[in-house]
Amino acid sequence: MRRPNTLYRVTTAAVVFSLILGIVFIARTGLPSADVIARQEASRPIIKVSDFNPGDVEIISLNNRRVIVWRRNETDRTLAASQNAPEGWRHQNSRVLGQAQTVFADDTNVTLEGEWFFALAEFSNPYQHLILRSGDFEGFFEGLYAGHFDLAGRIRIGGGSTNLTVIKAEYVDDGQGIQLYLDGKP
């Protein structure tokens, strides 16, 4: 009588093990593959806060895109606050990279806590280039059409047709890094 009991137990254990293994296999097939994860991480690069001192502004290349990274100092913040008057802007809204809706071009909507400004330094014409920290509003100057931008990337004077396209960002790693959303999806 013991022999059939043992066969039943071994068979039951094998079936249960197979079911658990099948469930684990099915669950793992629903996870993204390594190439999908790598693509997603590439579209959401992280910038180290310690790499930029207050007042630093530069154009860096991320995923073959030219991106303005500006860490404002107190003087920049004060000047930006004085420029935050909608009646002086040519355009009331700014595009956000990867999003269909525009945002009101208020300084709080286009910066990260008023300290960090991220925007695309790309134009449809390949001969257009921005000069950083210049122009009549101490923001950016675009030489081809003599476009003057203020500290929040809003076109104020000249031939530029729109405000700069801003990039959404948020602090990560307990404030040690900033994650940029180049795909527009936070």
From TrEMBL:
The chain crosses the membrane at residues 7-27. The keyword Membrane applies. Its EC number is 1.10.2.2. GO terms for molecular function: 2 iron, 2 sulfur cluster binding; oxidoreductase activity. Keywords: Membrane, Oxidoreductase, Transmembrane, Transmembrane helix. InterPro entries: Rieske_2Fe-2S_sf. It comes from the Bacteria. This is Ubiquinol-cytochrome c reductase iron-sulfur subunit. It comes from Shimia thalassica.
